[in-house]
Amino acid sequence: MTLRHTLTAVSLALLVPMPALADSHEGAVDELIDVMAFDELIAVMREEGLGYGDQIAEDMFGGRTTGEWDAAIDQIYSETAMSDAIRSGLVTALDGADVATIIDFFSTELGQEIVELEIAARRALLDEAVEEASKEAAAIALIDETPRAQLLTEFVETNDLVETNVVGAMNANYAFYVGLIEGGGFAGGLSQDELLADVWSQEDEIRQNTTEWVYSYGLLAYQPLSDEDLQTYIDFSNTEAGEDLNAALFAAFDGMFEDISGALGRAASQAMIGQDL
């Protein structure tokens, strides 16, 4: 590009009011959210969250809950709040990204099929029997090194799904502990070093659980796709637009989960105090 062309491009950019540019970007993000059916995904994630609230109650309170706990979990996993958090996170994380190219990919017949399959698989895994069967099938496929397992491994590594999810889970766990302390659940308190040591002590277990989930989910979700279609998805993930999307999704969802985990910690702390009373 010559200097003349560069100056022309800059001059044209300066003629566009900044609010219009912002509106254009946010509109593109809204279109992406619609194309990727995030409302449906968040509805499934709310169900996951309500189940997690029951699990916390079982682990920390012996399953004994109150109306206040149930109300807190319902509010923490509000679909509206989750949707707002994801939208805000994506608007920030996708600033400067080629959102139009991402929309174009997921607007294709293959892109829409991928969206539907990913949400359906996540919904199916709400059933513990399906989850266990899927994990077993994934373990066998990996041991046998089937062609599909190898292709899925390429997809997982391309998108750094294991490592990034492990980091996100550890950050969420840390946020939960901080929430517990902020809520007064630990009378003696914990030092920063003690908190970090406890979180790091969970790394191996988190990594194993994450790896199992990623492969069981991936093999279940993409089973109907041909190898060629899955390779097309991998190829898109390797593009700049695909990399930008992947990074933005982790940034937005990890931010939301950290906020949720902190709120869960504070709610659990209040429930512990209530039981002590």
Give the topology, please.
Elements: H1 3-14, H2 18-35, H3 38-61, H4 67-76, H5 79-93, H6 99-107, H7 109-124, H8 128-144, H9 147-158, H10 161-182, H11 192-200, H12 203-221, H13 227-237, H14 240-276
Helix pairs in contact: 2-6, 3-14, 4-14, 5-14, 7-12, 8-12, 9-12, 9-13, 10-11, 10-12, 10-14
What report would you give on this structure?
The protein is mainly alpha-helical. The protein has one domain. The protein is 83% helix and 0% strand. Helix 2 runs parallel beside helix 6 and helix 10 crosses helix 12. The N terminus is likely disordered.
In whole angstroms, the N-to-C terminal distance is 72 Å
**Any idea how many domains?**
1
Radius of gyration: 21 Å
Q: Could you list the spans in which at least 5 consecutive residues all have pLDDT below 50?
A: 1-21
Number of strands: 0
The total count of helices amounts to: 14
General shape: globular
Strand percentage lies at under 5%
Helix share of residues?
over 70%
Q: Structural class of the helix and strand makeup?
A: mainly alpha
Order of helices and strands: HHHHHHHHHHHHHH
Would you tell me the overall average pLDDT? 88
How does the major sheet shape up? none
